[in-house]
Structures are given as structure tokens and as C-alpha cells.
């Protein structure tokens, strides 16, 4: 079995240089780095990660805890985290907290017991126990997608990354109002999540911008789950004066809403216009194609890794919250024909409807 000394001899460098290439502990000239990597490949050298972790107290691993890993949005975030981690020589340990605060604390503890160097977590709607555990054990952590407020008197010191929510949601509602809709329903997410609160705020802003009143009967919580969203959509459609347009709060709930519409024999946009928060790979395969807000999922994951590695290198950095812009993807489920032009709305990165072609 090849050793680090064998790699150093083959590459014509010192053992220390091989170590710096493997551990990224010091800049190495590109030509030297490549010589070391070539020698590793030729000799089939495999670093002893366990031995190295005993010396450095680092395992070069990151714990990732996100719920509903099967959800396309979180799947893309996972891809961004994985790419960012591998780029810097880190592995991933992944757990699904199932949006359950008790299970969340359990899986985070298990990740911590496996001595990950830091964690990236999409917190539940009731994360107090999680935050207490992270604070008690001083675990370097980045929270993603769902922001949390620091508990009173806590030593909260976590970085956070998410997309913009309020202005993009407002743009969907405004767009539907511009199409002539006056009763616009919302299938909202799980109460307690920052994403849910911010998107409801955006919904209300969009109504106000269009001069429409807020009617709480037109808001039904779909719990960020397909089945619950299907039930919520049926409740909205059963109102004495049902909505003529609908906005869904995430892609899982979009599927639930579409099921409810199918069950009632309603067509989109003929019977009801539909706009969605979250894009997914098959959104333009539906008939009609779905008009959505697309979040920069992979970029959110990659940014979370960058923030975590910066925190590991400099533990006393000021806490940072990074918001990334979302994009309006204009298709046809809102009732617009194909080929509608857009102009960029100043300051939000959200395109607004322009003249029809």
C-alpha cells in the first residue's frame, strides 16, 4: 500500500508539501499541486482520514440536515452543498429531520457524535431545542432556506442563507391582478417557518399594490406537503365565492393543488389561473406550462458551504445573513399566451409583465 512518503518521492516534493495539497493548509504552486495529484493517482494512494482526524481534530466532513430530501427544491440544494463540499475536500453526512423538532434534535445530535466539522441545517418551525443544542456544544452551523430569530439571551452566532421571498411572491400576485383577477387564493406553507411568513407577507403586499383587499378566507395552509395542499385547495374551491386564481407556496404544494383541480375537473388557466413559488425540472412539461418563481437552489447550497468553511477558518467572524435573488419564470399557467415580453423590475431582480407580442 502506497504511503505519503511514496507520493512525495514520486512527485519530487517533501512530505509536508503532499500534506498541504491533501489538507489545503497552505497554497501550493499549480504545477506542484498537479504533480502531487498525478503521483497519488499513479500510486493509488488513499489518505488515512481517521488517522488524520485524530491529529488535526478535524474529520473534513459536513453534516447536512434537511427535511424532505425527495423534494426537488432540497434535492437541488443538496447538489449545491455536495459540489461545494467536494471542491474543498469535504465529505457529507446527510439526515432528514422530517420537519419534526424532536427528530430534528435527535439527528443533529447523531451527526455531531460522528464528529462532523460543522453543520448545514434547514431548521424546523420550532427550532428552539435545536438551537440550544448547537449553542451548548458550540457547533459551527449555517442555517439555510428558513431563517430564525435569535432567542432572547442566547449566544446565537450562526450564519444563514436563503432566497428572497417577499418581493417575488408579491410579483406573482400583482401579475395575476394585472390579468384581471380579483379573488386570488394562496396555498401557504407550514406555519412557523420564515418562508411561510415571508411569502404570506408578499401575498398581502401584492394585493395592496393592486388595490385589492386581504381576505383571510382566501388563505389556506397546505403545510408544505402535497396531501395537505390538496385538502387546502379543495377548501378554497369550496368557498361560496371561490378564487379565480391561485398561488402555491412551494413545489410540493403545487402538486397537491394540481391534484385537487384534476379531481374537480377544472382546467388551468381556463377555469383557474395558477402561479407557483418554486420551479422544478418538469414545470414546463405540464399543459399549460407553469409560471413560477425559481429559487437559486444550487447556489443556496454552495453559499452555505462557503459560509461554513469561512466560519471554520475564522470562528469569530460577525454573523452573516445572505439573501439570494429569485427569478420570475413566465410561462402560461397564469393565462398569458406564449411569447409575452418582460421588463426588469428595478431593485428586485423580478421581471414584470410587459407588452404582449
Description of the molecule:
- The chain is of the alpha/beta class.
- It contains twelve helices and 14 strands.
- The strands form three sheets. A six-stranded parallel β-sheet has the order 2-1-3-4-5-11, with helices on both faces. A six-stranded mixed β-sheet has the order 7-6-8-9-10-12, with helices on both faces.
- Helix 1 crosses helix 2, helix 1 crosses helix 3 and helix 6 packs parallel to helix 7.
- The longest helix is centred in the last third of the chain and has 17 residues.
- The radius of gyration is 24 Å and the shape is elongated.
- The relative contact order is 0.12.
- The C terminus is likely disordered.
Question: What structural keywords apply?
Answer:
42% helix; 12 helices; alpha/beta; 357 residues; 17% strand; elongated; six-stranded parallel β-sheet
How do you describe this structure in short?
The chain is an alpha/beta fold.
Strand order of the largest sheet: 2-1-3-4-5-11
Topology, number of strands: 14
User: Count the helices. How many?
Assistant: 12
Strand share of the residues? 15-25%
List the helices and strands and how they pair.
Layout lengths: L3 H8 L3 H9 L6 H14 L5 H8 L4 E5 L6 H16 L3 E5 L5 H13 L4 E4 L6 H10 L3 E4 L14 E5 L2 H13 L5 E5 L5 H16 L9 E3 L4 H12 L7 E4 L2 H13 L9 E5 L13 E4 L2 H17 L7 E4 L2 E3 L10 E5 L6 E6 L1
Parallel strand pairs: 1-2, 1-3, 3-4, 4-5, 5-11, 6-7, 6-8, 8-9, 9-10
Antiparallel strand pairs: 10-12, 13-14
Amino acid at each position: 500500500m502506497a504511503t505519503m512518503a511514496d507520493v512525495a518521492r514520486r512527485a519530487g516534493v517533501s512530505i509536508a508539501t503532499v500534506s498541504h495539497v491533501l489538507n489545503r493548509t497552505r497554497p501550493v504552486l499549480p504545477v506542484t499541486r498537479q504533480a502531487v495529484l498525478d503521483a497519488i493517482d499513479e500510486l493509488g494512494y488513499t489518505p488515512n482520514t481517521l488517522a488524520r482526524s485524530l491529529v488535526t481534530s478535524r474529520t473534513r466532513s459536513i453534516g447536512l440536515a434537511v427535511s424532505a430530501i425527495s423534494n426537488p427544491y432540497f434535492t437541488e440544494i443538496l447538489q449545491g452543498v455536495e459540489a461545494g463540499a467536494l471542491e474543498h475536500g469535504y465529505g457529507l453526512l446527510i439526515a432528514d429531520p422530517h420537519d419534526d423538532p424532536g427528530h430534528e434534535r435527535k439527528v443533529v445530535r447523531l451527526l455531531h457524535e460522528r464528529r462532523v466539522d460543522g453543520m448545514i441545517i434547514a431548521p424546523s418551525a420550532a427550532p428552539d431545542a435545536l438551537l440550544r443544542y448547537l449553542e451548548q456544544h458550540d457547533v459551527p452551523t449555517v442555517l439555510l432556506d428558513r431563517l430564525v430569530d435569535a432567542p432572547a439571551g442566547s449566544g446565537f452566532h450562526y450564519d444563514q442563507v436563503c432566497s428572497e421571498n417577499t418581493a417575488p411572491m408579491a410579483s406573482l400576485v400583482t401579475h395575476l391582478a394585472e390579468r384581471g383577477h380579483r379573488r386570488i387564493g394562496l396555498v401557504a406553507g407550514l406555519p412557523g417557518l420564515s418562508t411561510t411568513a415571508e411569502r404570506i407577507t408578499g401575498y398581502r403586499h401584492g394585493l395592496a399594490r393592486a388595490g385589492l383587499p386581504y381576505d383571510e378566507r382566501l388563505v389556506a395552509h397546505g403545510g408544505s406537503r402535497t396531501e395537505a395542499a390538496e385538502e387546502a385547495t379543495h377548501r378554497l374551491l369550496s368557498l361560496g365565492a371561490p378564487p379565480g386564481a391561485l398561488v402555491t407556496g412551494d413545489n410540493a404544494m403545487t402538486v397537491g393543488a394540481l391534484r385537487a383541480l384534476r379531481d374537480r375537473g377544472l382546467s388551468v388557466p381556463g377555469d383557474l389561473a395558477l402561479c407557483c413559488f418554486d420551479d422544478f425540472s418538469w414545470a414546463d412539461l405540464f399543459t399549460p406550462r407553469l409560471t413560477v418563481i425559481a429559487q437559486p437552489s444550487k447556489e443556496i447550497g454552495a453559499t452555505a458551504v462557503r459560509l461554513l468553511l469561512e466560519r471554520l477558518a475564522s470562528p469569530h467572524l460577525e454573523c452573516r445573513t445572505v439573501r439570494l435573488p429569485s427569478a420570475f419564470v413566465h410561462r402560461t399557467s397564469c393565462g398569458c399566451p406564449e411569447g409575452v415580453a418582460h421588463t426588469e423590475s428595478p431593485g428586485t431582480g423580478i421581471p414584470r409583465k410587459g407588452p404582449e407580442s
